[in-house]
Amino acid sequence: MKFVVIGADAAGMSAASRAKRSRPEMEITVLEKTRDVSYSA
Description:
Layout: E1 2-6, H1 10-22, E2 27-31
Parallel strand pairs: 1-2
């Protein structure tokens, strides 16, 4: 299964993290238009 997150802000990174914890086999891609990623999630 594949999961795409658009936006690497706190909500996007939290969604990616939660998806990976619930299904470790899932392939997750995070798309962000800027160079900076949120580390608060």
